[in-house]
Write a structure and sequence with these properties.
504 residues, nine-stranded mixed beta sheet, 24% strand, globular, hydrolase, O-Glycosyl hydrolase, Glyco_hydro_b, glucosylceramidase activity
Length: 504
């Protein structure tokens, strides 16, 4: 390490000055003239390195398809006077740059069984109608939700060209369920297979076709959302793995194909816990499932014990996926009191790292994009005075979605001499761009050396999210490499920091 001391850059000086180093070191650094560091100061700085990260360009893992958020709870989104800004901050170039939106196959659309036609827009309405108008206020809650989702998806395509739109089904129309008066899946309430498998398949296909007629081509649809959840009051449908697999192969895939929707993929099974999805999918006919999916909440054992929130230790599935994409299609912290600090942000950071860097998912979709209240389940919240609140979870999401784009591949990032940091590295083979996302959930600043194996780079730039950062992604000046091509960087405590560069 010390043989490269004369090559230390002025960027390192800036990093050290910005860090929580000792007063004596700060004074020594500040008194150093003409940008030159004494050997003692440099040695002291580098001697505090507590982590080494080797980036191996030649060892490659999964391809990223993108990051997204749910456009559900669509009515408050549609009615918000700040909806344009919210949309821009989630899917726009200046915001999170999400490229996926998850919608809902709502259960209350008008459906003509004879023709298989689903009506997705209430009669006599316009997606641009004034939400304060008498005509809009005369709509019932279901009609408002239908109109709101159509507006969101059409505007996302028009303004931000969001390429991947998917839709999940919470429950079939109630008249197709075993208990026709119950929205939830309590008491194992689900699709009535004796009468309604074909009808439900045609309903999902009709919904997809109706959106296609409006210019929205869904990338994929899912016939179930948390099919094991027989406890909650919200809309849901109980499925067994056997019945869901049969329905997809025998009913849904043929219904989609019959409407010319052969290219629309099918997602399944979207269980609430990653471990549950592993068990569910392992025993299911997946021959017509194109994307394997689960959610990122705590496992069932923790839920029974009264715990909620983001899964901090999901495990890699132990069955063969057949090289099909694996998506995490819903996660948020539903555990309690609103927390817009790095405490909440780091829960998401650990969750995202575990899914992306250990469970090898190809896409990560957050639960809610926005809410008209302050709640941990949403990336953007609304204060009592109507202003928008951006919790640190918003910033953490951006550490991945802004710097790890669709088409990037994860590559090897070996961490040594440290058990606290969580590191993942990502590259675009076409351009040579790369990003290294480092999560530091610990309370100590960590001086880290990034070693490059199989490539070189002339500089890296960092983007920091911490409790004391005012910008969403606080950008540093470019940092030059040491004489051996490595970079000496500082990772602040309780933070997420991304380093970007271009391979040479």
């Amino acid at each position: 390490m010390k043989k490269n001391l004369p090559g230390i850059s002025l960027s390192l000086l800036a990093m050290v000055l910005a860090s929580a180093c000792t007063k004596n070191m700060r004074d020594d650094l500040q008194s150093t003239a003409n940008g030159k560091l004494s050997n003692g100061v440099v040695a002291a700085a580098l001697a505090t390195d507590t982590a080494n990260i080797t980036l191996n360009w030649g060892t490659t893992y999964q391809r990223i398809e993108g990051f997204g958020a749910f456009a559900g709870r669509a009515t408050p989104f549609f009615e918000s006077p700040k909806r344009d800004s919210i949309m821009k901050q989630l899917w726009g170039a200046d915001g999170l740059q999400l490229n996926i939106v998850r919608g809902e196959v709502m259960y209350h659309y008008p459906f003509d069984k004879t023709t298989g036609t689903v009506t997705i827009q209430p009669a006599g309405t316009s997606i641009d109608m004034d939400v304060t108008s008498a005509a809009y206020q005369a709509l019932n809650s279901n009609q408002k939700a239908q109109l709101a989702q159509l507006w969101i998806l059409k505007k996302l395509k028009e303004r931000h060209q969001v390429p991947i739109m998917v839709a999940s089904t919470w429950t079939p129309p109630l008249y197709m369920k075993t208990n026709t008066s119950q929205e939830s899946a309590k008491n194992f309430n689900g699709l009535n297979y004796n009468c309604c498998s074909t009808d439900f398949a045609n309903y999902v296909a009709g919904f997809t076709k109706a959106y296609q007629n409006e210019g929205i081509n869904f990338y994929a649809v899912s016939p179930s959302n948390e099919p094991e959840n027989v406890f909650s009051d919200w809309a849901a449908s109980y499925w067994t793995a056997s019945h869901l697999g049969q329905f997809i192969s025998n009913n849904l895939r043929p219904a989609l194909n019959a409407k010319g929707l052969n290219s629309v993929k099918i997602i399944s099974s979207e269980n609430a816990a990653w471990g549950t999805a592993n068990s569910f999918l392992s025993g299911m006919d997946k021959s017509n499932v194109d994307i394997l999916a689960g959610h990122g909440y705590v496992e069932i054992g923790d839920l029974i014990l009264g715990k909620r929130g983001l899964n901090q230790d999901p495990k890699t599935w132990n069955y063969a996926t057949g090289n099909r994409p694996t998506w995490m299609t819903e996660a948020s912290d539903d555990s309690g009191v609103y927390d817009n600090t790095m405490t909440g942000g780091l829960k998401l950071a650990v969750n995202m790292h575990k899914f992306l860097a250990e469970c090898n998912v190809n896409a990560y979709v957050y639960w809610l994009g926005m809410l008209a209240i302050r709640n941990n389940e949403s990336l953007i919240c609304t204060n009592g005075d109507g202003s928008l609140d951006y919790p640190k979870t918003y910033d953490v999401m951006g550490q991945y979605s802004r710097f790890v784009h669709a088409g990037y591949y994860r590559f090897n990032s070996a961490l040594a001499n440290n058990t606290t940091l969580k590191v993942s590295a990502w590259k675009d083979p076409a351009t040579g761009k790369f990003s290294v996302v480092i999560v530091n959930p610990g309370g100590a600043e960590t001086r880290t050396r990034l070693k490059l194996s199989g490539f070189a780079s002339s500089q890296v730039t960092s983007y920091l999210t911490a409790d004391n950062t005012t910008a969403h992604w606080q950008q540093s000046a470019p940092l030059a490499p040491q004489a051996d091509g490595s970079f000496v960087v500082v990772v602040p405590p309780t933070s997420v920091i991304t380093f970007t560069g271009i391979a040479q």
